[in-house]
Amino acid sequence: MPVFPFSTGWLHLGVGRGQAFSVGRNGSGQAASYPPTPEINPELTGSFGKASEPDKEWDLNCECKPPSQALDREILLVPRRGVSSAGGSTFVQSVGSHSSRTMAPPRNVVKIAVQKADAIPQLIQLDQAKPLATVLKEVCDAWNLPHSESYALKFADGHKRYITENNRMEIKNGSILCLSIAPDLEAQQVLGGLQSTSREGCYRALKNLVPLASDMTFAQEVISRDGLQRLSTIIENGDDLGEMLALGLMAFLELMEHGVVSWETLSMPFVRKVVSYVNMNLMDASVQPLALRLLESVTLGSPALGQLVKSEVPLDRLLVHLQVMNQQLQTKAMALLTALLQGASTAERKHMLDYLWQRNLRQFIYKNIIHSAAPMGDEMAHHLYVLQALTLGLLEPRMRTPLDPYSQEQREQLQALRQAAFEPEGESMGTGLSADRRRSLCVREFRKLGFSNSNPAQDLERVPPGLLALDNMLYFSRHAPSAYSRFVLENSSREDKHECPFAKSSIQLTVLLCELLHVGEPCSETAQDFSPMFFSQDHSFHELFCVAIQLLNKTWKEMRATQEDFDKVMQVVREQLARTLALKPTSLELFRTKVNALTYGEVLRLRQTERLHQEGTLAPPILELREKLKPELLGLIRQQRLLRLCEGMLFRKISSRRRQDKLWFCCLSPNHKVLQYGDVEEGANPPTLESLPEQLPVADIRALLMGKDCPHVREKGSGKQNKDLYELAFSISYDHGEEEAYLNFIAPSKRDFYLWTDGLSALLGSTMGSEQTRLDLEQLLTMETKLRLLELENVPIPEQPPPVPPPPTNFNFCYDFSIIEP
Known about the structure:
With 822 residues, the chain is an alpha+beta fold. Helices cover 48% and strands 10% of the residues. It is built from 31 helices and 14 strands. A four-stranded mixed beta sheet has the order 5-4-7-6. The chain has a four-stranded antiparallel beta sheet with strand order 8-9-10-11. Keywords: Apoptosis, Phagocytosis, SH3-binding. One of its GO terms (molecular function) is SH3 domain binding.
């Protein structure tokens, strides 16, 4: 048994469970406790021990035990007063309860506050295992309130939702609740007000209903009492076309958003009445956006009623709403327009889009929405993306249809393509020739055009691109005849191995453009990646082909390519087009300027730069250095990811009808212990931590789910249209009482998906395995390795940054204004 002698100073012991002994000395040479503890009156220590005799060693493992009530007390051994510290007698003194050993409350008990108007708030410990009715009765008894079943608890912050057995686990330590009327009684009072004969009573009831309708518990009570029918009556009567009607529409929308009642249950007279509000000329500005939003939901939720909306709402009326300088009205009108287009057949969609283009919708979007002084909202950007995708989708039937060799029209189109390149020379040369000679001449000319087979129809049997490639070639020959003739004749005069085949290039280029522009792919539910250039030009796809085919010929000459280099040339052209499209040029002319500036030499330079940034040496010493640097740099990346979580981000909610007009904000607390989140309004500033009503302790998180494992993605099926959701979806599973609950996310972009999943993985102690982490780590390793290797080249690394050079003598810089965006 070890014995610890002490002859001078103070020995500070923690005898609570799991406490370590701590010994230190103060400035006078005495041992001091940490933190320093004032000397306690020796009279208080009689029950703990007696004075030791001088120079006696103390056995700290003796069998003597303090009283049970002192097990969690801190004991201080101090010298007896008046006795020399050297070998002096010592008392054992109680310092009181040790704060670090305070027993934590049970996990299912939370400390909260409950408020009530005109009453002192209660601070209680809520046992989550106790029935909610029992908790409510105890709260009411404390305020001497009878009939506790007439009351309910609500969150005091945020949306002030009712607390039920289903969501009670969302109550966390420090939550503030308030006592209010039970939801069934509240619903009964509101519906009673809606049935009031006085306008003022009905108006007050609607004002109370709108903020409460977003609560699922309250909404179910209203719906079960035929509240939707009462609201339908108010909307159909239309006695007040101002604020009262707007409140009725808002309440109706909020109740329907819960998905308890299907949109297919709405009556046709009700839908027609809402349509009439959209078609009215003089209408309150707050009513028509709500009516448009309701009709959009009807169109997406019920195909039958969607046909009614399509027949009752003229396209001209939607164009009128789009031309009003009201962003909210414009956005809702565009939302209804895209919903109608999505619900139409291919033939109907083509007819509708042709009519809209004739009415100059494209020009209006380009001038007044894309180039508006006000910033574009995310919802409008998404609807413009959908409009672009639906318009390009009209090309899919031609892309999927092979050329029919028995079609007289298609044979004539091929002959027109040949004649535009070689006539009238071919006609004059073929005059007086036999049929066989003329046929042989045509075959030779089609070969010069770049067709691989003697029968050009065989080249166009491949789908994709099918007939779309023929359409592009004809468009180029008719709208840019000089460029077309120059392309064909220039390559006809080259050596056989250096000629660029026009037809083969056009077919492959059409496939490439369809891939880059996602022709034939279903619309994404969240994407906002529209191209402003698309709305700057009629026949934008064919015009883009005209620019691209001339770019291909230019790149072919720069590369001095041969027939064997065809695939290499197409790879370079793909890179040129993809890089330029990523810049989102606002016009076709700007696209032409930028893509022609991206020469083959510039592409090689960019590739070399990227290669230098990515490549690393494989020498064993360098590999060893990189391995030593990895832990430190991974820690740096982990710190950056956690900081990104602390900054927070706005996410969009995807409802059952795949609407995305609601935002919510989520961030990590500075101490990395709590995820805080809550709904926000679009356009509002990022909320503060204190204003976020919901909290999720990190300790309650079970796992991080991504992709198809997420519950909100599984519910949408496994169709091709959900591919974008799989790539951006992630969820957090956490303990919700005895059950498992989920917090679901849809990231705005792939980069944000990587940053948040990495941050959450780091928070949970898991490996950060995203592609972004790999790229960041590689970049940091390359930079740090190069910095370490500079010393081998006798290049000193300064401790301070270099000084900023002095400014120039004048600022008359030359700037070329010829290449600017309009």
